[in-house]
Specification:
It is a single chain. The protein is built from four helices and twelve strands; from the N terminus they run E-H-E-E-H-E-E-E-E-H-H-E-E-E-E-E. By secondary structure, the chain is of the alpha+beta class. Helix 2 crosses helix 4. The longest helix is centred in the middle third of the chain and has 15 residues. The radius of gyration is 16 Å and the shape is globular. It starts with a strand and ends with a strand. The relative contact order is 0.18.
Length: 211
């Protein structure tokens, strides 16, 4: 996978989407920046951070993703790949359903996924160097570029959704003290049922993880 690295971008996600639409970049491809000035997180929140934190976006053709992966479960899949990579470096980061990286009870980053035709576009932000108030930074030392290279290399031989889900369903228990959002409403995860496709059943509602 090609990596295009920049000193600064307003948003790796917006930049990548524009380049894809203009056919100046083609998937699979990754865009990263040392700093980001107008980044976006879940539900339209900003994700800016400081120089040296991780700001990357990837575009992946559907054809290279596991055949048993429902695109609605892409946030969990992409996030758990990163979480497992961080674990291999000694981090205690865990994944709160469906797309937030946590250390203890504080968020350190997250994933957003969008579909553009047959292309999955995924943005990832992680506090590697510093974190705003009420957030936390990661518990290992690694550069944003080195982490990006290691993550991009994973796409040469991807595990199946079944493999990812069998590990994640155990970790999901850590999410029960938290809540998620559905149609801008908070939904407690205490009694949620995690289904085989990564969606949740909460109070009679089915909530998917794509966001």
């Amino acid at each position: 996978m090609d990596i295009h690295w920049f000193e600064s971008l307003e948003s790796t996600q917006s930049f990548l989407l524009e380049e894809l639409k203009a056919s100046r970049l083609l998937p699979p491809v990754c865009v990263g920046a040392l700093s980001q000035t107008l980044g976006k997180g879940s539900r339209g929140n900003s994700w800016i951070g400081v120089k040296g934190n991780l700001f990357i976006s990837l575009a992946l053709p559907r054809s290279i993703l596991p055949k048993d992966l429902r695109l609605e479960s892409s946030s969990i899949y992409m996030a758990f790949l990163m979480k497992e990579l961080l674990y291999s470096y000694g981090s205690k980061t865990w994944l709160k359903w469906p797309n937030d990286f946590y250390l203890g009870n504080k968020k350190i980053g997250g994933v957003i996924t969008n579909l553009m035709g047959d292309t999955l576009v995924c943005g990832i932000g992680i506090n590697l160097i510093a974190a705003p108030d009420e957030f936390e930074k990661i518990d290992i030392t690694i550069s944003a570029y080195d982490l990006t290279k290691a993550y991009s290399a994973l796409f040469k031989n991807l595990p199946s959704w079944k493999q990812i889900f069998s590990n994640y369903r155990v970790e999901f228990e850590n999410s029960r003290d938290f809540f998620t959002h559905n149609n801008n409403e908070k939904v407690a995860l205490e009694r949620a049922v995690l289904l085989e496709d990564g969606s949740l059943e909460c109070d009679g509602q089915r909530i998917f993880s794509l966001r």
